[in-house]
Design brief:
Shape: elongated
Number of strands: 21
Helix content: 25-40%
Largest sheet: 5 strands, mixed, barrel
Number of helices: 11
Length: 407
RNA sequence: CGGGGCGUAGUAUAGAGGCAGUAUGCAUGCUUUGGGAGCAUGAGGCCCGAGUUCAAUUCUCGGCGCCCCGACCA
């Protein structure tokens, strides 16, 4: 993509109303735009990152049997009354509104009710189970205090998967698979080494749950790391002895066993092989994509800007032209065509601005690799390839360049 | 929801009861061109309402908005 097609611009100054590193860098780099407290729009660069994250999650969910669909955002209050979660005294962060011709509706803040209700139409036999539907969608929570940039918003994009199993044993088996899938996701997103499987409270759902906590000073939660090797921890809220290293962390994902808490009120049951009626055993598995994106920025950026891991970077390579010479521009244009035709996602900075500005912008935006085409390129016939993370610079031939960027 | 802070140009900031300044960004011209260049010219601004006052962007009150700490976080 040509850089000017992005239409966004980088900024030197941090916005005054953002203190968190994630929002500061993402706004300066042109990834997000703040609409109001806790609500952000995703600009072309930011949306590309979200889509990369989404694709990683989709692949991992499909790998464990997940089936993607999408539940509605506007929710009928009747189904929430069934589970007892419509009342403001029970859930205080609902966004509710009313229909023109009467009747209240709510904006979805989670999906348990929607899925439990919907599946009563399709689940009737043990042969119909287990199933693992999931969706990506925007969720609304009327937070009394949104904070920390995109880490805790009022509107956010998330993935929620629900498991519907025949019994506890079948549920446990899937639960373990989901744990591993989550580990894969955070590894691929580049924050695996900082992310701990953390035992936590189950809230109103169950006694315990598991959170995936990424260690960073920006974290809201306090955890005790109980096993550095296995990447395990316990949340302070349920810790008793307080053994282990204390750390601040961001909850990037969580998984819950729900038991029959929802299948019971919705009558989500099936006829087993013995012709007896049994309740479906459920689990829920969530990840906030914006929060994950913000966490990556918090953990991996440096003093010059963002450092995106390859799998979530908006582009694979940033091609930078640093000459006004027509021959050199033609060379860069040609290289851009070659790269894109080989399927290498390239952001091409052909703007008529000085080299220093392009380099600074490139550091801020944080694309993993950079190719610089200038006078030296014509002389040496080699392309300068620079790694954003290490700063290492090498001169390589066209074949090596493509080979490397393909990997 | 309790406490604290803050609203001045696209962005970041200074300022005073009486012509609102600087930087950056933007436009134009010239000079520059491998790490956010230089000079010149130009466009662009005091959150909203009420009160006090001859005069309010400035003081007072109310509203709205934003940030931080805490509470909450299915």
């Amino acid at each position: 993509m040509l850089q000017r097609r992005l239409f966004t611009k980088t900024r030197k100054e941090a916005p005054k109303d953002e203190v968190s590193k994630n929002a500061e860098l993402l706004i300066r780099g042109g990834f997000i735009h703040k609409e109001m407290a806790g609500v952000y729009s995703f600009l072309p660069l930011g949306l590309r990152v979200i889509k990369k994250i989404e694709e990683i999650i989709r692949e991992e969910m499909n790998a464990i049997g997940g089936t993607e669909m999408r539940t509605a955002v506007l929710q009928n209050k009747e189904i929430w009354e069934k589970s007892g979660r419509w009342d403001d005294a029970v859930v205080d962060n609902w966004f509710k509104t009313s229909l023109k011709n009467g009747g209240e509706i709510g904006l979805s803040f989670t999906n348990e009710e929607a899925y439990s209700n919907l599946l009563t139409q399709y689940i009737s036999s043990y042969k119909d189970l287990p199933v693992y539907p999931y969706d990506f969608k925007n969720i609304f929570r009327n937070e009394t205090r949104s904070k920390s940039g995109i880490l805790r918003g009022r509107e956010f994009y998330w993935k929620a998967l629900y498991s519907f199993s025949r019994d506890d044993a079948e549920h446990e088996e899937f639960y373990e698979k989901a744990k591993q899938a989550y580990k894969n996701i955070f590894n691929r997103a580049g924050i695996g080494e900082y992310t701990y499987l953390t035992r936590a409270s189950g809230g109103s759902f169950s006694e315990f749950s598991h959170e995936f906590q990424t260690v960073t000073e920006a974290g809201e939660d306090t955890i005790y790391i109980t096993d550095e090797e296995k990447k395990e921890a316990i949340n302070k809220e349920i810790a008793k002895g307080n053994e282990g290293r204390e750390a601040q962390a961001i909850e990037v994902g969580n998984i819950f066993s729900l038991g029959t808490k929802f299948s019971e009120p919705f009558g989500l049951a099936y006829n087993d092989a013995d012709s007896k009626k049994k309740l479906v055993v459920m689990g829920s598995y969530g990840i906030g994509l914006g929060r994950l994106m913000g966490t990556i920025v918090e953990v991996l950026s440096d003093e010059r800007g963002i450092v995106w891991p390859r799998e979530v970077a908006p582009f694979r390579v940033h091609l930078i032209l640093v000459s006004e010479d027509k021959k050199i521009r033609a060379l860069a244009d040609e290289l851009y065509k070659t790269l894109t035709s080989r399927g290498i996602e390239t952001l091409y900075d052909d703007r008529d601005v000085r080299a220093g500005e392009k380099f600074a912008d490139s550091d801020l935006i944080g694309i993993p690799s950079r190719i610089i085409v200038g006078n030296k390129t014509i002389e040496s016939k080699l392309y300068e390839l620079k790694d954003r993370e290490s700063g290492e610079m090498r001169e390589v031939s066209l074949e090596h360049l493509i080979e490397e960027l393909k990997s």
